[in-house]
TrEMBL record:
Record EC number: 1.7.1.1, 1.7.1.3
A Pfam entry, by short name: Cyt-b5
Protein's UniProt name: Succinate, putative
Keyword Transmembrane helix: yes
Keywords, ordered alphabetically: Heme, Iron, Membrane, Metal-binding, Oxidoreductase, Transmembrane, Transmembrane helix
Organism listed in the record: Ichthyophthirius multifiliis (White spot disease agent)
InterPro entries cross-referenced by the UniProt entry: Cyt_B5-like_heme/steroid-bd (IPR001199), Cyt_B5-like_heme/steroid_sf (IPR036400), Cyt_B5_heme-BS (IPR018506), Cytochrome_b5 (IPR050668)
Length: 209
């Protein structure tokens, strides 16, 4: 069946293709479907996913791609982006995506552990709940207690309805970067006592045999 790769793609359609199972990018007004190329991309799939549903023209031009790389790209043409300005809906989506890609370190998170600056991590995302604490049905105390920390377990145990999970998206300020240093420290303590325990057992064995 003939595939029309010259069709017009709306901005709002482009934004729907921004996942690792369905990834389109825009370069010089042309939309490409790079989904099947993610695993093969020499620069890794992260950079392609970062621009999924977005305009990657400047990024693409800043890197010296070979003619072969360009030919691979051209084989994945889907169509041409629509003429005119980006619709408001798309612009708002872009702003939200920029926030989601904002990396926040654990050190930065820990600084926001007060009532007037209340951040916490839930499932890898960082939320600024400063303005929400007085509206929280469970009271502000539980939020303040978990401020500057990973509250994923507490959130899951509270069994919040889907409506709350949707509401919290409004307060995302970024994504936590790296591994929680406290987890590493705790694991270090566990390994330490594990080794000590083995030494004691071995020592006891040779002492009484």
């Amino acid at each position: 069946m003939f595939k029309d790769n010259n069709r017009t793609i709306k901005w709002t359609e482009l934004q729907k293709h921004s996942t690792n199972t369905d990834c389109w990018i825009l370069i010089d007004g042309i939309v490409y479907n790079v989904t099947t190329y993610l695993a093969e991309h020499p620069g890794g799939d992260d950079i392609l996913l970062k621009y999924g549903g977005k305009d990657a023209t400047q990024r693409f031009k800043s890197i010296g791609h070979t003619d072969y790389a360009i030919s691979i790209r051209d084989q994945r043409k889907v169509g041409m982006i629509e003429q005119g300005e980006q619709p408001t809906e798309y612009q708002e989506w872009i702003k939200k995506q920029e926030v989601l890609q904002n990396d926040i370190t654990w050190d930065e998170l820990e600084k926001h552990n007060k009532q007037d600056s209340l951040w916490m991590v839930i499932d890898e995302y960082v939320y600024d709940l400063t303005k929400y604490q007085n509206q929280h049905p469970g009271g502000s105390k539980i939020l303040i207690t978990n401020s500057g920390k990973d509250a994923s377990q507490q959130f899951q145990e509270a069994k919040h309805p889907e409506s709350v999970k949707e509401l919290r998206k409004e307060f995302i300020v970024g994504k936590i970067k790296g591994v929680n240093p406290k987890h590493i420290k705790n694991q270090g303590h566990i390994h330490y006592f594990y080794i000590i325990g083995i030494i004691v057992i071995i020592g006891g064995y040779y002492l009484y045999n």
